[in-house]
Amino acid sequence: MHNVAKDCYLCGKPADTTDHIPPRGLFSVVPQNIFTVPACRKCNADASKDEEYMRTTLAAFGYWTCAEARQVWDGAVRRSFARRQALRVQLSRGVRTVEVRTPQGQLLGKLPGLEVDGTRALRVMRKIVRGIYYHEQGQRIADESGVGFVSHGRSSAGNCRNCRLART
After folding, report:
1. Are 7 and 14 in contact (CB under 8 A)?
2. Which of 7, 71, 73, 96 is the most buried (most CB within 10 A)?
3. Cα(50)–Cα(38) distance, rounded to whole angstroms?
4. Three-state DSSP class for 35?
5. What is the DSSP letter of 82?
6. Mean pLDDT, residues 95-110 taken together
7. How much is the pTM?
């Protein structure tokens, strides 16, 4: 690793490594436009299990509709399951039966679904936003400034519609 001469984009302490934004583990093939920001080892390591969790849930949601998600699931996720039984157990506890309905409310059927730990996903998203801000502005988002996500409704497919990033 090259010498990192700046402060950590998350905590402001001296950086001794770099962090990929967005996390490399979210991809089966790392995109060309991924970038790094200075980080300290503690902040980088503290996020790794949440990033692994988010990668797993995103791959699960996209498995049947996205080749990239299948590649992530069949590669990195399966390797994670082999290493960490706790991750498998946590995800299996989140499996629920989900009713699928038309926009008018008519029941089409029931499918297995996965309840996601939103707190963990939000931590990863905040980290990504802070990394993008640092990369673009050359400075950290102040500690007293929070990063939040505001939803203004949900479509019938469950995808967030009209969402915006809010900085408080």
Report:
1. yes
2. 73
3. 19
4. strand
5. H
6. 92
7. 0.76
